[in-house]
Design brief:
With 191 residues, the chain is mostly helical. It contains six helices and no strands. It is globular, with a radius of gyration of 17 Å.
């Protein structure tokens, strides 16, 4: 089995050991909690914006897409969901705090950047096969992870989903964030 497929199919579950580590070592510090909350909100905003354009297909366990999404946040960066996740988890780490906060933040970034390097490699290989020249043009004009400041102009004029429909698609992520934050609070109360 291609390790990239493993990480793609299990990308919702692979961060669980990391989340347990963050909760176990949590020791919230008010001084950085605001920065953490800002990162968390920014990460969820980026995810929400991306999901509103890409739709529920982002929850699939099969690599591919029915159409190339190159509108909304996808005109600035090819992988806005992954950037959103990096901000989200960075926010959770900063909110949780830890005696070794910078080590925890480094582990989080190394984990996600490694996982996403593998997943993006598989996704791009698949998308070139599915969309050929269209995807190559997109790939040449829109960066993988560091957003371009200007919008890439193209013919994808799709409109975002409604707020409620996007919220329904994104509810699992929101539930997981709330669960992790509750576990951090409970750990502080009972340990």
């Amino acid at each position: 089995m291609d390790i990239r497929n493993f990480f793609f199919k299990n990308r919702s579950y692979t961060p669980i050991p990391l989340a347990i580590l963050i909760i176990y070592y949590s020791n919230p510090a008010f001084a950085i909690m605001g920065v953490g909350l800002t990162c968390l909100v920014l990460g969820e905003f980026i995810r929400f914006w991306a999901v509103s354009y890409a739709g529920g297909i982002t929850r699939t366990i099969k690599v591919g897409a029915p159409a190339l999404c190159s509108s909304g946040p996808f005109t600035h960066v090819r992988n806005p969901l992954y950037i959103g996740n990096l901000f989200l988890f960075s926010g959770v780490v900063l909110i949780a705090g830890a005696p070794n906060i910078w080590c925890m933040l480094s582990i989080t970034w190394i984990f996600f950047l490694t996982q996403y390097a593998l997943i993006i490699s598989l996704e791009e290989e698949t998308l070139v096969g599915l969309f050929g020249e269209s995807y190559e043009t997109y790939r040449q004009n829109v960066p993988r992870l560091l957003p371009r400041l200007t919008t890439w102009q193209n013919n994808d004029n799709r409109s975002p989903m409604t707020f409620i429909k996007t919220l329904k698609t994104e509810k699992r992520t929101l539930q997981n964030i709330i669960l992790i934050l509750l576990l951090i609070i409970l750990r502080q109360q009972f340990v």
